[in-house]
Design goal:
This protein is mainly alpha-helical. It has one domain. Helix content is 72%, strand content 0%. The chain has 5 helices and no strands. The protein starts with 10 loop residues before the first helix and ends in a 9-residue tail after the last helix.
């Protein structure tokens, strides 16, 4: 039986896959810019953003539980959907099954870390700020590497015909 390959599919499917990858990549770039805007990609500013700063020089209030919950609600639905669509398209590539498992496990763990980080930082420990870095880098790595593989497979075909 012939393995399903994206580069053998219709141009309509190729354009749909490419548009999804492009638009979701823009979403990741915008998320990175939003993080930079909110807390400057620094641990100190991230702590201030979530825990507040009521010292003499600043009067930033800590994020409320309802604010954290609202953001987590949106991310807990949208991030898995974006990654699931990516993981489905990855199925139509000759990438080895072991690598597909790594991409799914890494993406899942990154989503969990990044969604838990605000709660853990706000209510548990300042050290949880590191989860933003680990989770955020993981989100980018476990999105852009498989997305690049899928995009290349869609238009040019990756070497290999069978999964192992």
């Amino acid at each position: 039986m012939e393995s399903p390959r994206l580069y053998r599919k219709s141009s309509g499917l190729k354009w749909a896959v490419s548009a999804f990858l492009f638009l979701s990549a823009i979403g990741f770039v915008v998320a990175g810019l939003m993080s930079r805007e909110h807390y400057g990609l620094s641990h100190h500013q991230t702590i201030t953003y979530y825990r507040g700063d009521e010292t003499e020089g600043g009067m930033e209030l800590p994020k409320l539980y309802s604010q954290l919950l609202q953001t987590a609600h949106v991310h807990s639905f949208t991030m898995p959907l974006v990654f699931f669509a990516l993981w489905l398209t990855l199925h139509f590539t000759p990438v080895k099954t072991r690598w597909k498992q790594v991409f799914v496990a890494g993406g899942s763990l990154s989503i969990l870390l990044y969604n838990a980080a605000p709660f853990l930082l706000r209510y548990y420990s300042l050290k949880a700020v590191n989860l933003f870095t680990v989770g955020g880098i993981g989100l980018f790595v476990f999105y852009f590497i498989p997305a690049g593989l899928v995009c290349y497979e869609t238009w040019f075909g990756l070497p290999g015909d069978a999964e192992s």
